[in-house]
């Protein structure tokens, strides 16, 4: 069969061989971890007779994900070799008892906070901590100074043509905004001597369920290029029906500049930060995103 897993909360696929519903009647054949995913459909082949048993059996595929909505597991094109024959009896020994729901919140289409309470899909990534544990906001894009080695759940879009990188001043040829020194970190996209000229780097937020009238985004940016073709830095908000540009500049800067834009009221939306590289001497830096 072919499998595909993607996302921060994707877990694993277990493949079992069941010869009965009695104790010891189900054996684990293999496990596929999300860390094995290459972001594409991958083929998996399993020897069903590796245990040497010739009893009638059925195959069980079990997918496990976390309590949030940041992971997907998909399976397609399941096939058996010609040596596998359909059994005369389609009933295995023992009683087939349904597996209990490990997440009681699923019964109400909700998700676990981790403190015996639940939250709804509308409460996920809405800028409000509806769980005392913060579980409803912990995997959402957030304010970020890029000093922890990650991107605070901001995602590199897979359909752009260049990549944002988290670097320090020794690589990014300058000082960050947070600390004002070369050891601080920030986001950078470079033209690399012309190999990236005209390309676009797109940083994408997680899906936010809603925002209020006071919602805004602030960040600091620094852009350099020659005069032949300017860089462009834009921020836009995209929902199911529209895409609105809320910030745009193509002015080079010698120092870190504050960028600010109103997000306002939206439902089920994403925020994108887009850098369009100008000429062969171009660089665009972003630091200290605040939501």
Q: Over the alpha carbons, how many angstroms does the gyration radius reach?
A: 25 Å
- Give the amount of beta strand, in percent: 35-45%
Would you report the number of β strands? Answer: 19
Largest sheet: 6 strands, antiparallel
Distance between the termini: 43 Å
Order of helices and strands: EEEEEEEEEEHEEEEEEEEE
Low-confidence stretches: none
Determine the oligomeric state from the structure.
single chain
Overall average pLDDT: 87
Structural class category: mainly beta
What is the approximate shape? elongated
Helix content: under 10%
SS element count, helices: 1
Describe the structure.
- This protein has 291 residues and is mainly beta.
- Helices cover 1% and strands 38% of the residues.
- It has one helix spanning 169-172; strands spanning 2-6, 10-18, 26-33, 42-43, 58-65, 72-76, 111-112, 118-119, 155-156, 165-168, 185-190, 200-204, 208-211, 216-224, 232-238, 243-249, 257-262, 266-276, 283-290.
- Strands 9, 12, 13, 15, 16 and 18 form a six-stranded antiparallel sheet that branches. The protein has a five-stranded antiparallel sheet with strand order 10-11-19-14-17. A three-stranded antiparallel sheet has the order 4-1-6, with no helix packed on it.
- A hairpin with a 5-residue loop joins strand 7 (111-112) and strand 8 (118-119).
- 25% of the residues are buried.
């Amino acid at each position: 069969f072919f499998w595909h897993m993607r996302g921060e909360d994707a877990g694993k696929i277990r493949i079992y061989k069941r010869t009965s519903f009695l104790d010891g009647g189900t054996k684990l054949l293999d496990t596929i971890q999300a860390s094995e995913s290459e972001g594409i459909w991958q083929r998996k082949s399993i020897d069903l007779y590796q245990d040497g048993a010739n009893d009638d059996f059925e195959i069980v595929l079990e997918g496990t994900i976390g309590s949030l909505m940041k992971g997907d597991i998909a399976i397609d094109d399941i096939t058996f070799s010609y040596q596998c024959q359909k059994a005369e009896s389609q009933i295995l020994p023992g009683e087939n008892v349904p597996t209990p729901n490990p997440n009681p919140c699923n019964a109400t289409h909700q998700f676990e906070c981790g403190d015996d309470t639940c939250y709804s899909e509308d409460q996920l990534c809405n800028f409000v901590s509806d769980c005392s544990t913060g579980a409803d906001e912990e995997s959402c894009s957030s304010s970020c100074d890029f000093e922890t080695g990650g991107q605070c759940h901001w995602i590199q879009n897979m359909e752009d043509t260049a990549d944002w990188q988290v670097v320090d001043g020794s690589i990014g040829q300058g000082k960050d905004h947070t600390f004002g020194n070369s050891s601080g970190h920030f986001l950078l996209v470079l033209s690399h001597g012309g190999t990236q000229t005209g390309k676009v780097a797109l940083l994408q937020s997680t899906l936010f369920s809603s925002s209020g009238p006071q919602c805004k985004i602030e960040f600091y940016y620094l852009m350099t290029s020659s005069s032949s073709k300017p860089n462009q830095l834009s921020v836009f908000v995209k929902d199911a029906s529209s895409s609105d540009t809320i910030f745009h500049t193509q002015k080079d800067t010698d120092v870190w500049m504050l960028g600010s834009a109103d997000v306002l009221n939206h439902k089920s939306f994403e925020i994108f930060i887009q850098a369009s590289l100008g000429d062969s001497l171009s660089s665009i830096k972003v630091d200290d995103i605040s939501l």
